[in-house]
Specification:
Chain lengths: 211, 211
Amino acid sequence: MNGKLFTAEEAATLQDIIQQRRDVRGNRFTDRPLEPERVEQLLTAALHAPSVGFSQPWEFVVVNSPIIRQQIRESFDEANAAAQQAFSDRQAEYTRLKLEGILEAPLNIAVFYTPSQGPVLGQTSMPEVGLYSVVCAVQNMWLMARALNIGMGWVSILDADRVKRVLGAPESHRLVAYLCLGYTDGFYERPELEMLEWERRRDRNTVIRQV
Amino acid sequence: MNGKLFTAEEAATLQDIIQQRRDVRGNRFTDRPLEPERVEQLLTAALHAPSVGFSQPWEFVVVNSPIIRQQIRESFDEANAAAQQAFSDRQAEYTRLKLEGILEAPLNIAVFYTPSQGPVLGQTSMPEVGLYSVVCAVQNMWLMARALNIGMGWVSILDADRVKRVLGAPESHRLVAYLCLGYTDGFYERPELEMLEWERRRDRNTVIRQV
């Protein structure tokens, strides 16, 4: 067979990485900076994601500027204040949650979808699969971060158009993810929202069916 | 530190899996059936994907019925005939490509987004992140498949609403991915569309910038 044959042990390593990946928030990052070669490894993982028609419709913006980060954080603060209203019966509980790490994390990366000009193979019937390619790249980064013992959090409580303007992205680009990355003092044993009983893990039988 | 510390060797294994993952089409699947425990491993990987607000907004439909597969294949054929028109200058080249493995693959899995009722933590500003959680699950399956030396292909040239009806999914569900899975006679060294010069790999410097 062409291509490497992975061993059962290597598959078990992947299963471990998948199961121990966590969303890491700002109260868990340490000050230790990320080495440039680690950042390269994370981006390399992203760039080897699948993409529809091999279109690679993505841009990764590494955000170093403290002023820009502050502006992103302001967008979070506004969006989060609005979000709290939606959880009327659990507002106190919601307010206690730390939901981002924009200023605390040593590294921020914004990930954009950059639509292709002209038709893309495989994207003609379901145009949204271009965005999905970019999400696959984010998930690759998340798993690679965990394998490198680096924490990553995905911030989605943002005004996407405002973030786009702040980062000087072209009008045609679309924000898919805003990521906070850095070494952490630890990975929780289970998802934080499960541990806090915000949500329960769904029963396997309720989400899998056969036809 | 809480949580397992992965070694550099384990991180290198993940990097290998990521770089050697391929989209496998119908001309590459062998007849060897997938063992039930392998299917369970693939679904377990999916169910440990990140999801916004731990909402787990997904359903996985394992498609065994040959009649249903035939109907899905008909949707592909129609959508693909329409798609060819979009590639007017490369139509002959397009027609030669094998773009699905619906009938050839030993296993098909349709993956749906199942929107939550009521607000979801983290989904209040960018509602599309619910869909993105499901895509993360698909990417977990793709990597786990590769680690188990199983081929997977993502078919996106489909009428999503028709597939939904054929699979008896509720109106509120949304098709995210239709996957073909099975053992394969080999994984190409590079993405097939890169090898065939349909698209080139983009230069790293054009998709990464710093601010």
